[in-house]
Design a protein that fits this description.
Elements: H1 16-19, H2 25-30, H3 38-58, H4 65-76, H5 84-102, E1 108-116, E2 125-134, E3 137-143, H6 157-170, E4 178-184, E5 192-198, H7 199-218, H8 227-230, H9 240-251, H10 262-271, H11 275-291, H12 313-322, H13 327-330, H14 338-345, H15 347-354, H16 383-391
Parallel strand pairs: 3-4
Antiparallel strand pairs: 1-2, 2-3, 4-5
Helix pairs in contact: 3-4, 3-5, 6-7, 14-15
Bound molecules: iron/sulfur cluster.
Residues 18, 22, 25, 28, 223, 225, 229-230, 233, 235-236, 239, 241-242 line the site of iron/sulfur cluster.
């Protein structure tokens, strides 16, 4: 099936992180049109390229070099094509190859498999990018081309549903005991996430899914606003539950003690997390309403600050130089940033050629959630450091 034609169930696997938590969201979202952003279209193109490379590597007899080259030529004509897609999809291919080779015996490789998890969610189905099965292990691998939000494989509900569907499809053919799930997000520097659980744990989670899915399918249960689940919800601007929640977080502070404690600060930072994003979503929606000629009391759409752009930059520069403006004044030569050079050269080659000239300096301290994988830091001197300093006096 072409990636563009991938159908979506009401309770989609990609939306499971939302409807599992906020069960009425699926029905509410269904009343909003599904719009495909440029980023989504770009992701579709990258998926098609990734699929072609996988087919070529694992099923060369059916999908040989000529077919791969023809597919790549076709993709290159796409308006959203970027040459870097070749490199990123190679990273995905390399990962799948290395995982397949790590199996004690050659696994079955299943690419772009529509899996049916209807036993857990009504009419549930989805398409898994790649499945490897062998030696009691079922490994579901998902390719993500986005670079905005890092997605973790740990307890990931989308992959969990694919794994349930894949298990249903292959349980008669393979003895499966371990479920492995990976997300490959090659545009992020730390873009590979891998997690595993036992089949027993997956099936126990499947029972929880059944209960939540039954509510979600009927549009029942409680709305549960939160930064993660609301972020890509199609109802996010107009949803009353999210609106009430954020207004409450922002304004209903209650009785104010003179100073808040660290515990309160932590709780309030969590509670206020979605407020700014919600305000932005609401502004975007209100602007679109005003532009459509509808009334949003107290607000109106106006023309923003105008900007200037060349109509013909080459001609303008030519004329300026004819009028004695030196070329050196018009052009500046500056080196690309480290990240840009790495992008142009390629991660591996860059590390090999110029890696020794790169030094890492610690980043500015940042406040993140406790769940973040990075190690916590502090300015406090440890006893060992203090002792070392004393002994050097
Ligand atoms: S915006 Fe948030 S609270 Fe409202 S339906 Fe969507 S996920 Fe639920």
């Amino acid at each position: 099936m072409g990636h563009k034609e991938r159908k979506h169930a009401l309770l989609s696997a990609s939306g499971a992180h939302r409807w599992l938590v906020c069960t009425p969201s699926a029905r509410l979202e269904a009343s909003f049109p599904e719009e495909e952003s440029d980023a989504a279209k770009e992701g579709t193109l990258a998926h098609e390229l990734a699929e072609a490379k996988l087919r070529n590597y694992f099923f060369t007899a059916d999908f040989g070099k000529r077919k791969l080259s023809a597919a790549i030529s076709r993709f290159r004509k796409h308006e959203l094509w970027q040459e870097e897609m070749m490199r990123y999809t190679d990273e995905y291919l390399d990962y799948v190859k290395s995982e397949a080779m790590a199996f004690p015996s050659e696994p079955s490789v299943i690419i772009e498999k529509q899996v049916d998890f209807g036993a857990y969610t009504p009419d549930g189905f989805g398409t898994a990018d790649c499945i490897l099965v062998s030696g009691g292990v079922l490994h579901v691998i998902d390719f993500k081309y986005g670079k905005g939000v890092a997605v973790s494989a740990e307890g990931n509900p989308q992959l969990g549903l694919y794994a349930l569907g894949a298990y249903e499809a292959y349980k008669m053919l393979y003895p499966i005991e371990t479920i492995r799930m990976s997300i490959v997000q090659p545009r992020l520097s730390d873009g590979i996430s891998k997690w595993e659980c036992s089949l027993k744990e997956l099936l126990a989670w499947g029972e929880y899914v059944k209960e939540r899915a039954a509510l979600a399918f009927k549009g029942e249960g409680d709305f549960y606003p939160g930064e993660k689940q609301c972020r890509f919800c199609r109802a996010k601007a107009q949803c009353r539950a999210r609106s009430d929640h954020n207004v409450k977080q922002a304004f209903e502070i209650g009785q104010l003690p003179p100073l808040i404690t660290a515990k309160e600060a932590g709780e309030r930072l969590l509670a206020l997390e979605d407020v700014a994003k919600y305000q932005k979503d609401l502004q975007e929606w209100a602007l679109s309403e005003c532009l459509a000629g509808k009334e949003v009391p107290g607000w109106k759409a106006v023309e923003g600050r105008s900007s200037r752009a060349w109509t013909d930059m080459d001609k303008a520069f030519e004329v300026l130089q004819e009028h004695q403006v030196p070329r050196a004044v018009l052009f500046e030569e500056k080196p690309l940033t480290l990240a840009q050079v790495e992008k142009v050269v390629g991660k591996k080659e860059f590390a090999e050629i110029a890696g020794e000239y790169v030094a890492w300096s610690p980043g500015r301290p940042a406040l993140v959630k406790e769940s973040d994988k990075r190690q916590a830091i502090t300015n406090k001197i440890t006893a060992a450091e203090a002792f070392k300093e004393d002994s050097q006096l």
